[in-house]
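pls design
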């Protein structure tokens, strides 16, 4: 007598298939992180550059208008309605400061390895 039609039913994936899928996902994830990580640093550097340029322009306008330079914390810019906040936050944390000797705004909170932008004024 012959057995009636029988088929084996697979219930899930094998260990090899699951491991292969996990390895592929890890490789794709690592490639994505490696691609996107530098973009974050570039965005911070661009924001830093734009903020410094704007603040230095505001300081120049303030100096032309009042004949004075701002205080170290740049509160004078806020009091003269040049900025919306009394303290100007940096993309790296902390606040911008005024260097009275160099006559420029700077970021005292830059992390090691960050691009240090110099935007000096020509003081007359």
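designed seq:
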């Amino acid at each position: 007598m012959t057995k009636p039609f029988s088929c084996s039913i697979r219930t899930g994936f094998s260990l090899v298939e699951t491991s292969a899928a996990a390895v592929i996902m890890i490789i794709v994830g690592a490639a994505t992180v490696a691609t996107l990580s530098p973009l974050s640093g570039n965005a911070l550097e661009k924001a830093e550059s734009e903020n410094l340029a704007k603040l230095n322009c505001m300081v120049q306008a303030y100096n032309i208008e009042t004949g004075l330079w701002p205080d170290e914390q740049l509160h004078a810019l806020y009091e003269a309605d040049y900025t919306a906040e009394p303290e100007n936050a940096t993309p790296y944390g902390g606040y911008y400061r005024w260097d009275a000797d160099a006559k420029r705004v700077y970021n005292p909170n830059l992390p090691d390895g960050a691009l240090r932008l110099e935007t000096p004024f020509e003081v007359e």
